[in-house]
Specification:
By secondary structure, the protein is α/β, with parallel strands linked by helices. It contains 13 helices and 15 strands. It has a 6-stranded parallel β-sheet with strand order 3-2-1-4-5-6, with helices on both faces. It has a 5-stranded parallel β-sheet with strand order 8-7-9-10-11, with helices on both faces. A two-stranded antiparallel sheet has the order 12-13. Helix 1 (3-19) crosses helix 5 (115-121). The chain is globular and about 60 Å long. The relative contact order is 0.12.
């Protein structure tokens, strides 16, 4: 189904809200709170600080978060007591299901302000988002537009600024329980998950480096296992042509992957959703940053205690200042696509700058500090 059909379904809901759910001042003690977004896995997990802050300051409130269906399993055990509901912008049926949940005192839209239209349609009486979204009509229904931080700040702290009240304490793994996963054969003993996949070729590391990294871990008595998406099997083949190590690429769902990581000694991954999942399950994690920003995607204060090391290199073309369609002067990242056309990058120079030695040093540093 097209987005147009979903938007047509949204219109009568907006008409209802115009008559019944008229905007009002932000409630001091909201009874029902909505978080509306369509973020991908990594950015969704960056909402953890916001969820923790809302629960700390509104212990009796019902907190509902809508998110893409793919990320829903990670919330099935209700971390922070949050009720997660699926919403796909091309699925009008998921919108009709949300309609049955309508009626919120407060809604927060942490990224694109177009989600404010959905929040108002679901009866949100006060909507908070960030200022500066690039198209004016997206902002019409945002009642309170807060400025993006003026100084470098990790996303996990930035999102939390949309909520009032005392800042939450540091993350503890007990705050994020996992539901039981479908059975799968997990490794025994000490093992390291090497996740090769990423959303773009510009985040992929050299296969020869991965192979050498796996061999070095095996030499230390840590069994390496491969991970990648179902459409990225060739990455594992290139790194392990002889099939020396077990591969979970394309074999696990997201909840199974979380359990695999929770039992691991180590995770090494490019800057992608799986790397952020490593923080949630508290596995020692080394993240390889190419086009992305190690500061934006870093642990901040909230994940300060997480066993985590970022490996990055200064490179002049990580120079773009746009994030979530906003221009933010202190941001330094690269959102270019892979290719030779205008505005594209033909080669992952930022990933090439990450040496095998730098990654080995990072994981040894982590292992030394672990009990």
């Amino acid at each position: 189904m097209s987005r147009t059909a979903t938007r047509l379904t949204l219109l009568p809901m907006l008409a209802w809200s115009a008559l019944v759910a008229r905007p009002r001042r932000r409630a001091v003690r909201p009874r029902r709170i909505l978080i509306a977004h369509q973020l991908l896995l990594g950015d969704t997990l960056m909402l953890a600080g916001l969820l923790a802050k809302l629960r700390q300051n509104h212990p009796d409130a019902e907190i509902v978060m809508i998110c893409p269906p793919a990320t829903l399993p990670l919330f099935s055990a209700r971390p922070y007591g949050v009720i997660a509901l699926p919403y796909a912008e091309r699925d009008a049926a998921s919108l009709r299901a949300l309609w049955r949940q309508r009626g919120f005192d407060l809604a927060i839209v942490p990224a694109e302000n177009r989600m404010a239209w959905l929040a108002r349609a679901l009866g949100a009486r006060h909507i908070v988002g960030f200022a500066g979204d690039d198209k004016g009509y997206k902002n019409w229904l945002v009642d309170e537009r807060r400025p993006w931080p003026g100084t470098p700040t990790a996303l996990v702290e930035t999102f939390a600024q949309l909520a009032d009240g005392a800042e939450p304490g540091h993350f503890s793994p007990e705050q994020w329980p996992l539901a039981e996963a479908r059975p799968f054969e997990a490794p025994t003993g000490r093992y390291a998950v090497l996740h090769l996949g990423a959303s773009t070729k510009l985040k992929r590391w050299d296969s020869a480096h991965w192979r050498a990294l796996a061999d070095s871990l095996a030499a230390q008595g840590i069994t390496p296992v491969w991970s990648a998406g179902a459409k990225e099997l060739e990455l594992v083949t290139a790194a392990d042509m002889d099939g020396n190590y077990v591969s979970y690429a394309g074999r696990l769902d997201l909840l199974q992957m979380a359990h695999l990581l929770r039992g691991a000694t180590l995770l090494i991954s490019p800057d992608t959703g799986i790397a952020h999942l490593g923080r949630v399950v508290n596995v020692p994690t080394v993240v390889l940053f190419g086009p992305g920003s190690a500061l934006l995607c870093g642990p901040g204060e909230f994940w300060r205690d997480a066993p985590y090391v970022a490996v990055t290199a200064d490179i002049e073309c990580r120079d773009q200042r746009i994030l979530f369609r906003r221009r933010i002067e202190w941001v330094r990242r690269c959102g270019r696509g892979f290719g030779t056309g205008p505005g594209q990058c033909p080669r992952a120079r930022c990933m090439e700058a990450l040496t095998l030695e730098s990654v080995q040093t990072a994981y040894l540093r982590l292992l030394i500090t672990q009990p």
